[in-house]
Amino acid sequence: MSITEKTIRYSTIYRLSSHILFWLVVFIVPQYQTDISIRDMLIQNSFYVSFYMMASYFVAYFIIPKFQRGENYLVVILYFIIGGYLLSALSRFMVVYVLEPLIRKPPYSQESLLEIATDLRKLITDYFLQNFSLAWIFGFIKLSKDQYLTRQRTLQLEKEKAEAELNVLKAQLNPHFLFNTLNNIYSLSLTNSPITSSSIAGLAEILDHILYRCNSNFVPISTEINLLENYIALEKIRYDKRLKVYFNHVIDQDVQIIPLILLSIIENAFKHGAGEDIGEPRIDIDLTVQTGDLHFKVENTFVGQKEHVYTEKIGMSNLRKQLTLVYPKNHELTTYISEGRFVTLLTISNLTIDDARFKNKSTVSFS
Fold first, then answer.
1. Which end of the chain is less congested by CB atoms within 10 angstroms, N or C?
2. What CA–CA distance (Å, rounded) separates 79 from 73?
3. Model confidence, pTM
């Protein structure tokens, strides 16, 4: 946090004390005059600081807010002229009838109220310019602070909105995945398959990951790899030996990633690839993480549609929304069909590194 941010934070939390500190600094700024005593100088400074305060708060809390709200500029300028005149006249009146009797020795002459009110030249050159020169500095400081706080609130609201949208997308993804998996187990139970119990156990492990390990916005890539391996093993149960799945992953750093995005790509490959291929479907998965950059490629056999009639499913649509929310400028997701194979390519750069010493290289075949 920079000094400016710390100062703004302090002035926001301790508003009264920050104002007192500001005016105390203005008060103690040396104004050396050889012809008056320290007592008279302190009294004089107190009067002048009070004039500065009236002008500053008039500009900062009355004039500037009216400009910001877009009120009629001519009316606001008129307010400023009238207010400036009244404050200057009041300042001159206080100097003549209060300050000077305290610090000057009689006899001395005093201006009448009419002379004070009509001597515009003296009011402008000696009081208006002096009082309002500091007032505009004070107003500029307050305006800068307000703009900073407004930007911070806007960023916070955008962050909260993005997190809320991301949670909605996760809520859409999880039931989508569970619906597909439960359908698989239901099919096994209808045939009294002996692997039904192992399927339920595999699902329980996946649910443990989704319910208890995906509560944070980011998770280590190593936990996502374990999830993918469990999911693939569970899906492989219902395809027997006709489905071939190859999962290669080379990880040099355990980077942080938003949960379930890799699973949604693989889920899409199973549902719209292997699930619609009555022949010998094949899925090739390659995951590489190197120096904070992730490259994920999934290829699956693809039948029944041509490239120009392909329509994106809900899982991939949700994935794109998630990636846009979390990685708006450092990701790329492309899909295409080539030679009967559907290919999904995901690249995310500059991921946060969880442990730079982590090393992992593995090739898993689920044939």
1. N
2. 10
3. 0.55
The CATH T-level fold of domain 193-365 is: Heat Shock Protein 90 (3.30.565)
> Which segments of the chain does DSSP mark as H helices, in order?
3-13, 15-28, 38-58, 64-68, 73-94, 100-103, 113-118, 120-122, 129-190, 196-208, 221-236, 261-272, 314-326
At residue 314, the pLDDT reads: 60
Q: What is the DSSP letter of 275?
A: G
CB-count exposure of residue 215 (10 Å: 0-12, 13-18, 19+)? exposed
The dihedral sign for the CA sequence 68, 73, 79, 85: positive
Task: Name residues whose C-beta falls within 8 Å of residue 76's C-beta, 6 or more positions apart in sequence.
Answer: 63, 66, 67
Nearest to 345 by CA among 308, 294, 282, 271: 294
Domain residue ranges of the chain, discontinuous segments joined by +: 3-155, 193-365
Quick: pLDDT tens for 227-248: 898 888 887 776 767 788 999 9
Task: Put the strands of the sheet holding 293-301 in their side by side order.
Answer: 331-338, 341-348, 293-301, 282-290, 244-251, 360-365
- Residue 305 gets which letter from DSSP? -
Rounded to whole angstroms, the Cα distance separating 92 from 107 reads: 19
Distance CA 279, CA 117 (A): 100
Q: Categorise residue 310: left if φ over 0, alpha if ψ from -120 to 50, beta otherwise.
A: beta
- Inform me whether the pLDDT recorded for 135 exceeds 50: yes
Q: How many angstroms separate the CA atoms of 292 and 252, rounded?
A: 9
Q: Give SS3 for 74.
A: helix
Residues in contact with 44: Cβ distance below 8 Å, sequence separation at least 6, in sequence order: 31, 36, 99, 103
Two tokens, residue 175: 């039931």
Q: What is the 3-state secondary structure (H, E, C) of 83-119?
A: HHHHHHHHHHHHHHHHHHHHHCCCCCCCCCHHHHHHC
Nearest to 180 by CA among 343, 282, 315, 305: 315
Q: What is the mean pLDDT of residues 267-294?
A: 81
Return the DSSP state at 281.
Answer: -
Q: How far apart are CA 83 and CA 94, in angstroms?
A: 16
